[in-house]
Amino acid sequence: MHQKMKGRIQTLSVFLIILFVILTGRLMQIQLISTESFSTKRINLIEKSVEQRTQSLVVEEGRGHFVDRHGKALTHDFYPTVILFPFLKKLDWPKEELASILHVPSYTLERVVESITTPVLLEQNGQAIQLTEKQMQEITDLQFPGIISMVRSFRIDDKKAEHLIGLTSENEREFMNRYEDKIKVDYFSKKTPIGVTGLELAFDEFLLPEGSTKLLYHVDRNGGPLFGLDVRYSAPANPYYPLTIQTSIDREVQQIAEEIVEKAGIKKGGIVLLDIDTNEVLAMVSKPDINWNDPFGDNGTKNYMLERQFPGSVFKTVIAAAAIEKNLVKANRSFDCNLNLYGERGERQGALSFEESFAQSCNYTFASLGYELEQKMPGIIETYASRLGLIEPSGWKGNVFHLRDFKQIPQEETGIIWGDGQRSQKEIAQTSIGQKEVRVTPLAIANMMATIARGGKAMEVKVVKGIHYRTGSPLYEFPSHSLKVEGVSKYTTIKLQHLLREVVQNEKGTGHSFHKLPYAVAGKSGTAETGLRNSNGVPLVNRWFAGYFPFEKPKYALVVVDLETENSRKAMANAFYQMVENIFEKDKHNETLKEGKALLQ
Length: 601
Fold this sequence. Notes:
The protein is an alpha+beta fold and about 600 residues long. It is about 35% helix and about 20% strand. The chain has 18 helices and 23 strands. The strands form 8 sheets. The chain has a 5-stranded antiparallel beta sheet with strand order 14-13-23-22-21, with helices on both faces. α11 (about 315-325) packs across α17 (about 490-505), α12 packs across α17 and α13 crosses α15 (about 425-430). The longest helix is centred in the N-terminal third of the chain and has 32 residues, at about 1-35. The radius of gyration is 33 Å and the shape is elongated. The chain starts with a helix and ends with a helix.
């Protein structure tokens, strides 16, 4: 019995020795051998240990941001503020001096410091305090650890051009599809936010962060400073990043457009405003707004200015162009506009010339001309829709560095003229007045108006002017590109300009309500049936006005569209009227400022 007990003790001793050796070996592996590449996941244990004792404040996330054409912030703003660290509560810190610099009570500062466990931005009225250059220097001169003044990045709450700029989101699968090679770089992870709509998507590769900028300090288990009072500034090694995307948007005009659409009561639809000389987008508004609490819960993320819609009578511009070029319009020719588009009686417009038919939007005239055109040359309606830039996407495209055929507006849809059905006289009549299968984007319509205003020179639409380094120096400037369409003759363009002006000047013209505007407007109205009805059975229509101004020296092309509405044209017309009036006032103000500067020089 004694012998058996002795054997068990020996066995247990050997087991304990082996277990001790294993644990000692494991501990040596963790602390001495595999400290920088522990386990199959190659975990750096030293870094993880430091991370547990490190507190930080992100100064800048590292993703690139957007500004308007004048350099004004659209997504992020940068301004100097003051940051306080929690270890100040353990020190005799200069709260009275700081309070004097910031013009706040010292007890407010003391209360903030006592309540924090991590670094914080000092706020006033719910917003980070914005320092003047003098205040920033005075705080720096305090030279006290834990009180830091520095320029920090802030995401703007008052978002502008939200549909055009777009959204970012964490999407591990999509990140790996796009950037599998980047996962090898230590500042990227599968959870790195990526662009999913708008310019955030189009320029995602330029916007990806090179790493975030942080303020770091180390603490013990009680939250006190572990390695002295030093606060370390951690920033990406590349001083040229993050990049800035300079859009063509004018923030002030964009704000005006957004307020006008909201006030007009347009629930679905929006505005496109182009600078005719450069063919750049100055403002783009789409309704409904994005629900930022649940962006993809409804259709709020859709930019309807880039999606094809039924254009209605705006499309008569295409039929007019083809009819002029094919010499179907004689000076003495008139059309019986007591007939509807099918040649049946029911209208009361009387006999109208071609010019009067365009101004008053006579359906019979354009249904007749469309049928004659298709009989002479099948497919001609689609041909001229293409020549006026309504089919292929009009957004800027080209090679940018290693990116082949880069598109500024990748989500822009193509236009449609014909479906798969037969092209009978009835179908041709409906197509000729912008119904049946005809659908084009508001951006393409705006670009058509800009092309006509320029005398027929078709250009691609730019929404981004350039990409700049963090330092402000240019990385890439987007050149102007011609739109690769055949176009129409100079003679036809001049005739179209005259027709569009008559829509406003003619007393019975569908755009006559705009004739008193301070800028002379040329354009075309449109009302399109959508085939939809509201809950009460009332038909829903698209209401348009597309044009340009001032007529004598065109500067702006403007489209306003109220989509799937049961309302009268009042909302759309008010929005167009207010936009022209506001732009006139803005131009007048800018001209006054220029004259004032000239007098001072």
